[in-house]
5-formyltetrahydrofolate cyclo-ligase (Subtercola boreus), 192 residues
Amino acid sequence: MLSQTSNIKRALRAELRERRRNRTSTERESATEAFTQNLIALTGQHSAKLVACYLSAQNEPNTRPFLNWAFANGISTLFPITREDGLLDWAHGDGETEAVGLFGMPEPVGELLGPIAINDVDLIIIPAAAVDAGGMRLGWGRGYFDKTLGSMQKCPPVYAVIYDDELLDTVPREVHDQPVDGIVTPNRILTF
């Protein structure tokens, strides 16, 4: 049986998914340019040479132009690969080939490096449904990133990529939920 908090999270996620689906192509294109510039700036601020970042799905903030920039500028990137046990493997990918992961999300094709590969990155960029003013992240409900972040002994800066209207006053929280250090939106980089 789901807790009251779990039910609230499910309802909020449904609302946020609908908002993303209703964004126009013009809004998405404009946001993509701004996301890209802010992700480039964030990488520079942290002097990151190895970045963990997700491959965006259709209605997510588009990370691909940033990833193309990283590849062209010698920034190595690790991508998450979902596993059935709830953990994430990591891969560098070849920059072009993608597969469909366990939950229909895009994943790179490349040598699997295992869950501990993320311990070597300088910066982690993750998806989110929303983030609150204190840095608590609401994910999409499977807990992969919460497990990963919660298991790291020395975690580099973690930033969630969201639209400006997905920064909320508060998000529902459960004991396993992990906060982020900041967010990247089309209009800003915010560190908590």
Summary: The two ends are 34 Å apart (CA to CA). The chain is about 30% helix and 20% strand. Helices lie at 4-21, 25-45, 64-72, 144-151.
